Amino acid sequence: MARAPLLQLTDISLTFGGNPVFDGLSLAVQGGDRLALVGRNGAGKSTLMKVMAGLVEADTGERTVPPGVRVGYMEQDPDLSGFETLGDFAAANLDPAERYKVEAASEGLGFDPDRPVVTASGGERRRAALARLMAEAPELMLLDEPTNHLDIAAVDWLENQLSETRAGYVIISHDRAFLRRLTKATLWIDRGQVRRQDIGFDGFEAWRDKVWEEEDQALHKMDRRIKSEGKWAVEGISARRKRNQGRLRALQALRAERASAIRRQGAAAMSLESGPKSGKRVFEASKVSKAFGEKTICKDFSVLINRGDRVAFVGPNGAGKTTLLRLLLGEIEPDTGTVVQGTNLLSAVFDQSRAKLDPEMSLWDSLTGDPDMRVSGKADQVLVRGQARHVVGYLKDFLFDERQARAPVKSLSGGEKARLLLAKLMARESNLLVLDEPTNDLDIETLDLLQELLDDYDGTVLLVSHDRDFLDRVATTTIALEGAGRVTAYAGGWSDYLAQRPEEAAATVEKAKPQEAVRAKPEAKPAARMSFTEKHRLEALPAVIDRLTAEIGKLEELLAQPDLYTAQPVKFAKATEALVERQKALADAEEEWLLLAEKAENEG
Q1: Could you tell me where the DSSP H helices lie in 137-279?
Q2: Contact criterion met (CB below 8 Å) for 158 and 127
């Protein structure tokens, strides 16, 4: 006899003041299901999860949970009012003898259960909510962006816990690596419908593209049929008026069906253009040390960052990644050592705390009220990289509609707030991007677009992120904060970091004993030998050469288009200029590598 589903939704319809969020939606979650819940920002993922959790009541339809089945929900903004400490909240529904489960989860997730709720950050509150869910161990777990605010070690702990549980779970996440490892089926929300496919997230994008291709083909056939039937109606209706009323009604129904087809939300029209070039050297840190009391952020740290580098900063929460960024940017002074900034730097900063968004302010006012975007005497226009744009038109580039323009920021989802911040960031001319956790809450399609924009950006990128897939796609250098002041630069992204320093990376991920991660560096070589900066540059150059080679290939492919010169002369000119620039940069990089490699060989 088949077992009843852990949760079943039947003919669910829900409307929030306008178009229906869901209409006639039905789905079931079976025991042992490992489901990814995916869809565009604003498609209704979090709303559907709240319906599944019983926190939002549908207008019509039924939610069914069998007796004895517990459904646990980890929301993005948990309410901890009424609790003294994070541990009190996490253990609220547990027997006192089971509080050890919260202690174990807090160790894995990296938060202090004794921290008072009133002083806890948003990230700590989310980790406490996640610990509460893991400790309670319900038969069905609903997790809404569980990896946000987790460092890579905590994500790894959570992955291990979920891979070993016998419970079913549904996960909303932007973290591709997390979803690939854990999910075996996918729920896809698209224009109010939910489709299920019994493949994990790794197969989602190919499935989505196939569905869209079939949909486009069906609509194309419908358009051709409407055109054909419409021609018949115009040319032959008078002769066949009585006999063909049925065919006319069918044509009207066909047109109505086509008109009611809900158009897919397109990709954001985000664009990112660098301003005037900076100098070749962007930052050079030499023997920099910084400590706050007994906590050492970095000790004798040296690095050279050149124009065009994509540098990722990784390490546990609280290790000091943002502090290290601020040291490089000159916002705080080192205790010892020097930081030299390059010339002609124009920076644009993406703030992980979303502190630059006033929740009570409308999207319209958030843009027009920004001093960097204000157009004198024009209340309905914003300055976008030196050009005036209508505020609604610019918001539409980031997938906001006219109705949302006057809505308060607090009404936005996490992903929509991230897109609004990107709108502010990309309006500025820059040659240095500082991105502190930019991937949180963004949907997969927007992440793909952001990665492509960063690939094509001519400036320099400093990136803090715990999204391993995004780091691998973007970073050319990874700076790891490994504890006790040890900060080391590695060529490439996260996977390259693991490959180059497997023992240290494993210690970071698995939270092994501290002495394994912070053992002393080998004794420095005599001053006459290669400097640290030269060694780092020699390690980093192959990735730079590969990137330049790939960019040259893309530009040559673009310029090979026969009609580009006549159809888009400006684009042709820019591409030609970029090709010459990158060819010269490639020649310089190859020559630099040969000189450094020869020097290293002579030392050996």
Answers
A1: 152-164, 176-182, 204-236, 245-260
A2: no
- What are the tens digits of pLDDT across the range 326-373? 999 999 999 999 999 999 999 888 876 655 788 889 999 999 988 888
Residue with tokens 């400097």: 531
> Which phi-psi region, left, alpha or beta, contains residue 275 (left: φ > 0; alpha: ψ -120 to 50)?
beta
Could you tell me whether strands 60-64 and 71-74 are parallel, antiparallel, or unpaired per DSSP bridges? unpaired
Would you state the pLDDT for residue 52? Answer: 95
Question: How far is the C-alpha of 483 from the C-alpha of 519, rounded, in Å?
Answer: 10
Which CATH number applies to 7-204: 3.40.50.10800, 3.40.30.10, 3.40.50.300, 1.10.30.50?
A: 3.40.50.300
Cα–Cα dist 530/538, whole Å: 10
CB-based contact 201:183 (threshold 8 Å): yes
DSSP states of 352-372: TT-TT--TTSBHHHHHHT-TT
User: How far does the chain reach from its first CA to its final CA, in angstroms?
Assistant: 72
Determine the 3-state secondary structure of 387 from DSSP.
Answer: strand
Q: pTM (2 decimals)?
A: 0.68
Give CA–CA dist 402/599, Å, rounded. 61
Beta bridge partners of 195: 188
Query: For residues 600 and 64, what is the distance between their CA atoms, to the nearest angstrom?
Result: 68
Q: Assign 463 to helix, strand or coil.
A: strand
CATH of span 278-346+429-521 = 3.40.50.300
Class of domain 525-604: mainly alpha
Joined tokens for residue 183:
């999910």
Instruction: Dump pLDDT digits (tens) for 488-517.
Output: 999 999 988 888 875 554 555 554 433 333
The Cα–Cα gap between 383 and 310 comes to 27
Cα distance between residue 306 and residue 290, in whole Å: 23
Closest CA to 578 of 398, 457, 497, 429: 457
- The residue behind tokens 């390490």 is 315
C-alpha count within 13 angstroms, C-beta hemisphere, residue 28: 7
Per-residue pLDDT tens for 245-298? 555 566 566 555 555 555 555 555 677 777 788 899 999 999 999 999 989 999
CA 156/CA 168 separation, integer angstroms: 19
Each residue's pLDDT tens digit, 373-393? 888 777 888 888 888 999 998
How many CB atoms are located within 10 Å of the residue 37 CB? 24
Query: CA-CA distance, 35 to 183, in Å (whole number)?
Result: 5
Average pLDDT, the chain: 82
Q: Which two tokens stand for residue 478?
A: 């990874």
What are the b/e assignments for 570-597, b being 16+ CB within 10 Å?
Answer: eebeebeebbebbeebbeebeebbeebe
Q: What is the CA radius of gyration of the chain?
A: 28
Between the alpha carbon of residue 145 and those of residues 237, 360, 414, 439, the distances in Å are 58, 24, 10, 11
Q: How far apart are CA 307 and CA 544, in angstroms?
A: 11
